[in-house]
Every structure is written in C-alpha cells, then in structure tokens.
Amino acid sequence: MKTKILIVDDHLLVREGLKLILEANESFEVIGEAQNGKKALDFLEYELPDVILLDLKMPIMSGLDTMDQIKTRQLDIPIIILTTYNEDGLMVKGLKAGAKGYLLKDTDRYNLYRTIESAVRGDSLIQPEIMEKLLHINDAAFSINNDTVNSQQLSKKEIYIITKVANGYRNKEIACELGIAERTVKSRLTNIYNKLGVNSRSEAVSVAIKQGYINL
Questions:
Q1: Is the model's pTM score more than 0.70?
Q2: CA 42 to CA 16: how far, in whole Å?
Q3: Are 34 and 43 in contact (CB under 8 A)?
Q4: In a structure prediction context, what are the per-residue pLDDT tens digits for the chain, which is 216 residues long?
Q5: If DSSP states are collapsed to H, E and C, what string results for the chain?
Q6: Neighbouring C-beta atoms of residue 188, cutoff 10 Å
C-alpha cells in the first residue's frame, strides 16, 4: 500500500517539484496539493493523507496556524515542515507544536524519502544541518519551562537510547540492540521526556544535543 501524501506550499514550482520526486518512488502517492492552510483544511474534510508536507510561510493561513487547526480537529496526521534557512524562529515553534521532522526545500530525494518513512512510522527525523541551526537559535526562543524540567541527569542507557533516536532508529530497533522489550524502550523514552521537560521525540533530541548528551 502506498503512502498517501498531501503537499501544502504556496509556490507552484515547489509543489510540482516535490510531486515529481515523490511519485518517482513507487511507495508514495501524492493525493493532493494546497497553496495555503485553509485549502489544506478543506481537503482534509474529504480525504486524509498518511503524512503532510507543510510550508511555514503561506498567505491566508500559515503553517503554524494550520498545525493548530489540525490538532484542534484531533486529526492524527504526522506533519513534516518544509523550511528555508531564514525561518529559525518558526522552526522552533513548529518543533514545539509536534512536527515530526523538518526538510530544507533544497534537500535531496534520499532525505525526503527517509524523513517521510520515519514520520509515517511515528518517529522523528531532523536533518543534521537543521539540528545545528536549532542549537544556535537564541536560548530565549528555545526556552524550556524550568518548573517542568527534572534536575536528574540522563543515565548512560538513556543517553544511548536518545542518541539512537537522533539517528532515526525505531523503538523496535533500539530494543533489539539492547536485548529488551519494545515497551521498555517506550517507558525509558517517557522517563527521558520527563527529565528533559519535553513532549516529543524531536524536541527531546534537540534538548539532549543542547545539554551536551549528544554530539553531532
């Protein structure tokens, strides 16, 4: 069964380019295109994709507002944000809003395919160059509520797990390497989230790098 994709971007050339690249892979099917968030929400009234490629800056309704509306409607659709190098602050907001990944608009098809496959599995995958950018954004823009952060340090095993997550490993793969049950990996990830004061895999990876647990 093919992965159904909705492309949301206000630039026709970007949409057409992505569609050509995606449909060159037999695993993917572009089921719709939209030039802004409102059009995307209209589309979701009739058909639900497996993943959404979402631009951040669009007229009428932005990417962030679209994410909010999708969450309000309780639609559990993984979202990958399309970004450029001048959208640092928006990238952080998208990360906190639960984006499963970020793609630079000039990425190669290998990264595009891999990021989509990770998102559909429920994993997060952020390109190293984007992660580097996130780490250099002003700390105030990427602040974590001190009241929610556990002062405990990550254990060696937790550092191993979050490092694997940062490299795109699935829970099942991590469990196999450690010789433990997949539910144990999930439990330890929850503990990592609590210690770092985050709510998602991508945010956990970002904070773990920022705090020195992971070296790129």
A1: no
A2: 20
A3: yes
A4: 899 999 999 999 999 999 999 989 999 999 999 999 999 999 999 999 999 999 988 889 988 899 989 988 888 898 998 877 555 666 667 766 777 777 878 788 888 888 888 888 776 666 555 555 555 544 444 444 444 444 568 888 898 898 888 877 888 888 888 888 888 888 899 899 888 888 778 778 878 887 888 865
A5: CCEEEEEECCCHHHHHHHHHHHCCCCCEEEEEEECCHHHHHHHHCCCCCCEEEEECCCCCCCHHHHHHHHHHCCCCCCEEEEECCCCHHHHHHHHHCCCCEEEECCCCHHHHHHHHHHHHHCCCEECHHHHHHHHCCCHHHHCCCHHHCCCCCCCHHHHHHHHHHHCCCCHHHHHHHHCCCHHHHHHHHHHHHHHHCCCCHHHHHHHHHHCCCCCC
A6: 21
